[in-house]
Amino acid sequence: TDEEKAEFEAAVDAMSDDVMEMSDTMPGAATLLAQGDFKPRAHEVEGKAILIEKDSKKILRFEDFDTINGPNLHVYLSSDLGDDDFVDLGKLKATKGNFNYDLDSSIDTNKYNKVLVWCVPFGVLFSYAQLG
Hints:
By secondary structure, this protein is mainly β. It has one helix at 2-15; strands spanning 21-23, 31-40, 45-54, 57-67, 73-78, 86-91, 96-102, 114-119, 124-130. The mean pLDDT is 93.
């Protein structure tokens, strides 16, 4: 509704200048499995999502990432661009920089090959990357 849209925009505006920056290092001797550029949906974004493997463990890396902040942003690995079939990796660690998420070995990254930045309270897709 128009009221929900206005509430969402007000919540994002209130947080948009709240930058959370991280600089995780790239794990050494990791194997690149897949990557994709982040694309805007509700908000502008820059950076890459990179799926790597190190010592038989998969890691999702956000590299040169830059977006505005928003209320309760989470990272989903999803089979589509919605919230019907996804794995929640938890809160977005930062709005700027490089950071890693260790993936549980049970996650099928062939099926869940879309990385979503999702605003949980409003059900809004901020941005996404297709791993390929």
